[in-house]
Design a protein that fits this description.
By secondary structure, this protein is an alpha/beta fold. It contains 6 helices and 9 strands, in the order βαβαβαβαβαβαβββ. Strands 3-2-1-4-5 form a 5-stranded parallel sheet, with helices on both faces. Strands 7-6-9-8 form a 4-stranded antiparallel sheet. Helix 3 packs parallel to helix 4. The protein is globular. It starts with 8 loop residues before the first strand and ends with a strand.
């Protein structure tokens, strides 16, 4: 991983969630020339990627002002995978192909990618290996940082973060659509002690959408209903628009 800008263009691995958005924001702060956002749209559950509401990344990209490239479900060939390792490798293939193609199109080629990994060796090791094959750097400003400090930094920077999916003990339907603010973080710290919930949802306990931030020109606004099965749930987005 690197903290320095190299020659060529950068691509942000972007879901619209808080972690990938923070990685993008920090990259732009450092002056890395991010020329594209790449959003993977998994079909069903995924070992490698943020799943819910990835289609809203298009709105986020419009607000940010950087062109977005989507990797679609039909590009995946992970259905026959027999274990998580094999599936993770298979899920990475269409992303690597998309980045390889972008490297031939972008000014100066592909210098590096931004990634929002915090603690997942599973994801990070694969992204680093992919970047090495592409002769690119990885900028991962969240990697192994203290979770509460990271979350506080996001709020201090002006990120507006909504919880769009929950799947962990201690997180009930009331969390769906909730804004991730200081009070919510205090409650998550208590839930971490009681249930082991990761403060940033790193283990899939919850997923988020950044609806506003200093890197965005216009806020995303949502009209939604909640879907709850008694143990987990998500937002069903009825409408979304830029303010």
């Amino acid at each position: 991983m690197t903290d320095e800008a190299g020659d060529g263009s950068w691509v942000s691995l972007f879901s619209g969630g808080k972690d990938s958005s923070w990685a993008l924001y920090r990259a732009l702060e450092r002056g890395l020339p991010v020329e594209r956002l790449v959003t993977v749209h998994p079909e069903g559950d995924s070992y490698m990627y943020h799943v819910p509401a990835t289609r809203l990344a298009t709105l986020a990209a419009e607000s940010i002002g950087i062109e977005l490239v989507g990797v679609e479900p039909e590009d995946f060939d992970a259905g026959e995978a027999v274990d998580s390792s094999t599936q993770g490798d298979a899920e990475l293939e269409p992303l690597e192909a998309a980045l390889d193609e972008l490297g031939r199109e972008l000014p100066g080629g592909l210098a590096g990618v931004t990634a929002g990994a915090v603690e997942s060796e599973y994801q990070t090791s694969r992204i680093e290996a992919m970047a090495e094959r592409l002769d690119a750097e990885v900028f991962a400003p969240l990697w192994q940082r203290e979770p509460r400090q990271l979350a506080d930094a996001m709020l201090d920077a002006g990120f507006e973060i909504r919880i769009i999916r929950v799947a962990a003990g201690g997180l009930d339907e009331s969390w769906l659509g909730r804004r991730l603010d200081a009070d919510a973080l205090d409650e998550l710290e208590a839930l971490n002690e009681e249930y082991g919930v990761h403060i940033l949802g790193e283990g899939g306990e919850f997923e988020t959408l950044v609806t506003d931030g200093p890197h965005m020109e216009r806020a995303i606004r949502l009209d939604f209903e909640t879907e709850w099965d008694g143990t987990r749930g998500s937002l069903r987005i009825e409408d979304a628009w830029l303010e």
